[in-house]
Structure prediction request, 136 residues.
Amino acid sequence: MRFPAFILAAGLTGALGFSVVACHPAAKTDMETLEYARSMISLDGEPTARVIGGDQVEVIGLATNHDKFQHDVFFTAALFDAGGKQVGSATGKLEDWPAGHRGAYKLLGSTKSPNWSRVTVVVSNVYEHVIGQPEQ
Prediction:
């Protein structure tokens, strides 16, 4: 009779141990730094910009999420004239962008001059699976 009681006690102890592990908050393995998350987003090719009415501008381009996590990725564009002065800006995001996917971003903003000569785009922020960044 002692042997079955030992097995029962061992089984209960094991079940309790598994339940503690299952209820323990997830480790930070599903989180990464902002710098790392940004580095995993590539801007593919040159962005293009066009006036869509009045002083409103649209900037479009392609980017790839090379990370293992889905993210909300924010982009910022700057438009510069031939002298290097910034004459416009645009912002936008790809929301719930799946890991490993390429996507087209469309940023909206305004310009002081329809005569820009250069457009730059940067990844300005990343949310979702990023340490210190609240879920958006």
